[in-house]
Design brief:
By secondary structure, the chain is an alpha/beta fold. Helices cover about 45% and strands about 20% of the residues. The chain is built from twelve helices and eleven strands. It has helices spanning about 1-5, 25-45, 85-90, 95-115, 135-145, 160-165, 165-180, 195-200, 210-215, 220-235, 250-255, 275-285; strands at about 5-10, 15-20, 45-55, 60-75, 75-80, 120-125, 155-160, 180-190, 205-210, 240, 260. A hairpin with a 3-residue loop joins strand 4 (about 60-75) and strand 5. Helix 4 (about 95-115) packs parallel to helix 5 and helix 5 (about 135-145) runs parallel beside helix 7 (about 165-180). The N and C termini lie far apart (about 65 Å). The structure holds ligand C2E and magnesium ion (MG) (3 copies). One magnesium ion binds near residues 66, 125, 156 and 186. One of its GO terms (biological process) is cellular response to nitric oxide. This is GGDEF domain-containing protein. GO terms for molecular function: cyclic-guanylate-specific phosphodiesterase activity.
């Protein structure tokens, strides 16, 4: 009986279900528990968006913010995305989660503008499953509902996103571009795709993966790869941004090699809405 196979685990709090049934091995019951917990997280608004600044390398001005999801779990505390996004992708839960992220980020950006803060695009990460035919219409609805101009939204996709079903992806990306938003390729250099898609896909920017940035000062190969990506981006008329910049040496290298934008702990960690608002206010005040 399903009823007797499930009971409320009193010691773990009101909303926590545990499953035990002879036909379930621990892996299955762990996954079920995760599924239940993530569904509850959506219903009870346990997800939070943090915002990390993107800066111009030319003058240090803020040119954007990336929204990064966190899960404030009553059982586990703050859970980073790498610990639940892959599972959400597998189970399809990424669809409602992704919709929540997009809606929240757009409304928040509009709020910042209404508060008189600098107008900057907010970047949202997309999972492969989200890039389907209904996405452009959904994005368009969210922009209308939030009152955010499309130019203030950027979507970050990975190389693998577009390799799943290249033909359909191209069509969807074009439909998204027609809305007037920006598209960037995240974690560039780590995927499996060929470079030829860069000609066919309507993207505006490349984000150099942080694994290359981490080693640019010490490792000649990483330095060469970063320089090559910067050149490639510029030849194709794309902006290029380095992620994961943690120190002055990396900053100097990127500036010397004409990278356009930077993002990383050296300039600003991912912050809560409150902290990012204060940070942005200070930046605006310095008049840069
Ligand atoms: P990503 O989009 O490549 O985001 C960059 C990651 O690098 C973030 O990790 C960020 O906190 C981290 N980071 C930023 N600056 C530095 C630095 O200077 N040094 C180091 N070591 N790390 C830095 P985070 O927030 O844990 O996110 C991990 C990944 O989870 C993201 O990688 C993205 O792929 C995914 N993710 C985050 N939020 C969402 C979301 O809303 N939807 C989807 N589908 N995926 C998301
Ligand atoms: Mg990203
Ligand atoms: Mg990245
Ligand atoms: Mg990444």
């Amino acid at each position: 009986q399903a009823d007797s196979a499930m009971y409320r685990a009193k010691e773990q709090g009101r909303n926590n279900f545990q499953f035990f049934a002879p036909w379930m091995d621990t892996q299955v019951s762990n996954r079920l528990e995760m599924l239940i917990n993530l569904r509850r997280a959506l219903d009870q608004e346990e997800f939070k968006l943090y915002y990390q600044p993107k800066l111009s390398l030319k003058d240090g001005s803020v040119i954007g913010a990336e929204a990064l999801i966190r899960w404030q779990s009553p059982e586990q505390g703050m859970v980073p995305p790498d610990r639940f996004i892959p599972f959400a992708e597998e189970t399809g839960l990424i669809l409602p989660i992704g919709e929540w992220v997009l809606r929240t980020a757009c409304h928040q950006n509009k709020r910042w503008q209404q508060a008189g803060l600098p107008t900057i695009p907010v970047a949202v990460n997309l999972s492969p499953r989200q890039l389907n035919q209904s996405l452009p219409e959904f994005v368009s609805d969210v922009l209308r509902q939030s009152g955010l101009d499309a130019s203030c939204l950027e979507l970050e996709i990975t190389e693998n996103v577009v390799m799943k079903d290249a033909e359909k992806s191209v069509a969807t990306l074009h439909a998204l571009k027609r809305l007037g938003l920006q598209i960037s390729v995240d974690d560039f250099g780590t995927g499996y795709s060929s470079l030829s898609y860069l000609r066919r896909f309507p993207v505006d920017a490349l984000k150099i993966d942080k694994s290359f940035v981490r080693d640019i000062v010490r490792d000649a190969d990483s330095a060469a790869i970063v320089k090559a990506i910067i050149s490639l981006a510029h030849i194709l008329n794309l902006r290029v941004i380095a992620e994961g910049v943690e120190d002055e040496e990396q900053h100097a290298f990127l500036k010397e090699n004409a990278c356009d934008e930077v993002q990383g702990y050296f300039f600003g960690k991912p912050m809560t809405v409150e902290d990012f608002t204060a940070w942005l206010t200070r930046q605006a005040g310095t008049g840069r």
